[in-house]
Amino acid sequence: MTIRWHQLTSAQFAGLAGGYGGAGAVAALAHAQLSKHLLLIKFIATAWSGDRTHRDRAVDVLARAQAADPERFARLLTDPLVGAWAARTTRRLRGAARSEVPLDVDCNHLSAVATAAAALTGVDADLVVHASPGGVTLPGLGRALTAEPGHTPLAAIVRRGRVTVERQTGWQVLRELTGSAEREELVVTLDDLDAYRGGHHAPPADRLSDDDLRRWQDAFAAGWSLIARYDRERAGELAAGLRTLVPLARLDAHSARSATIRDAFGAFGLTRPSTPAEFAVMLVHEFQHSKLSGVLDIQPLTDPASTELHFAPWRTDPRPVGGLLQGLYAFLGIGQLWDRLRGAPELAETATRELALAREQVRWGLRSLDGSAALLPAGERFAAGVRAAFATLAARELPGRVVRRAEQDLHGAHQAWQRRNAESLRR
Question: CA 379: distance to chain centroid?
Fold first, then answer.
């Protein structure tokens, strides 16, 4: 398995800093994930002190799969949830994370990845995988149903692209959502199976019913239609990099939630949004986090040793500079989308109001960032790009009453934040 260095061109970096970047820059971020995931897998294979036979077989199958079909191999290895597993397991091996799952089971998910790689590339293989609750999940393929309890080792046989798991009772396929509008298409996996799809602030939803799947499809198509019609550049970015949506359990009846895992580029978790505009905003919001995380994989922007804490208008707690930058970038993208959606007659009033609020949030976030000693030189350049993009939004003429309301809301949020965090800020 070969590993390559990656870097962004000056134009790609500048474009991304401005909130967009384009499909080419996003494709570069996505491509870098292959090297990242291979490095993590190499570490796992080296540090894994469990069954060497399982490890050696998995590594051998992965090497043969890469040689047999490099493109399909790369597509699987850049799966966001492969990245989530590899990062989580690496942290466990380094003592930086804990889990109730036996460490050997997490490490041996390498055999499940190898099983999927063999099936996708036409390589024959004999491996041992571990069941998780419900069965054996194979990234990019689905779940082999078994009646075995979690963590049970089971034989997995791959012949001519077909997988058979010991004591298998059935199969659940991964399903997709498709959006098509204005000659722009986006197809994503709706992953309600993978054993490593968790880690958000709400648990992942269980297997969706066919009726739920249809509701997700309708909502996704409507949200995508807004982006494709009114923000074509953003549509191109999403088509180049968004791979997976993880449905989350709805913890209450009134709010939609979404979150991105740092190590799962091109994926995020969400509850099903109730309106097309809400879905469109979620897609842009969370993919902004993926883009910035992808940049950080290639180019550090902040000093990891910094202890600075900042006001972030979208949070009630003081935020480190890295968290502030993530939020700034997300809300810049939200503001840019609402600016475009002002062109939708049915959304013009809402979009104007939301644009005013988003740009005020970015304004206050940039004030917090000003003078930070935690930004590296690349971080200073990135922040300058955010400021320039914000200046474009700030120049939009909006109704005075809408602007004043946004200003009042943010001023009130800042005062409440100061009162809430007065003690911690004095330390």
Answer: 21
DSSP string across 321-354 = HHHHHHHHHHHHHHHHHHHHHTTSGGGHHHHHHH
> How far apart are the C-alpha atoms of 383 and 301, rounded to whole Å?
9
Residue 228, pLDDT above cutoff 70 = yes
Residue 371 has pLDDT above 90, yes or no: no
d(CA 412, CA 418): 10
CA nearest neighbour of 115 among 157, 154, 76: 157
Q: Give DSSP secondary structure letters for 193-249.
A: --TT---SSSPBP-PPPHHHHHHHHHHHHHHHHHHHHH-HHHHHHHHHH--EEEEB-
State the SS3 of 251-274.
CCCCCCCEECCCCCCCEEEECCCC
Whether pLDDT at 389 is above 90: yes
What is the C-alpha separation between 176 and 249, in angstroms, rounded? 18
Q: Is 405 helix (H, G, I), strand (E, B) or coil?
A: helix
Q: What is the mean pLDDT of residues 244-264?
A: 87
Question: For the CA atoms of the chain, what is the radius of gyration?
Answer: 22
Q: Is pTM, for the whole model, over 0.85? A: yes
DSSP letter assigned to residue 149: P
- Residue 373: phi and psi, rounded to 5, are -90, 0
- Predicted local confidence at residue 133, as pLDDT: 86
pLDDT in tens, 277-300: 999 999 999 999 999 999 999 999
Q: Answer for the pair 286, 258: CB distance below 8 angstroms, yes or no.
A: yes
Q: What stretch of H or E contains 136? A: strand 135-138
Compute the distance between CA of residue 417 and CA of residue 311 in angstroms, rounded to an integer.
Answer: 8
Q: Which of 159, 131, 158 is nearest to 147 (CA)?
A: 131
289's tokens: 């986090």
Q: What pLDDT was estimated at residue 426? A: 64
3-state SS, residue 174: coil
The pair phi, psi for residue 399, each rounded to 5°, is -55, 135
pLDDT at 71 over 60: yes
Distance CA 237, CA 265 (A): 13
SS3 170: strand
Residue 404 banded pLDDT, cuts 50, 70, 90: very high
d(CA 216, CA 163): 29
C-alpha neighbours within 13 Å on the C-beta side of residue 330: 22
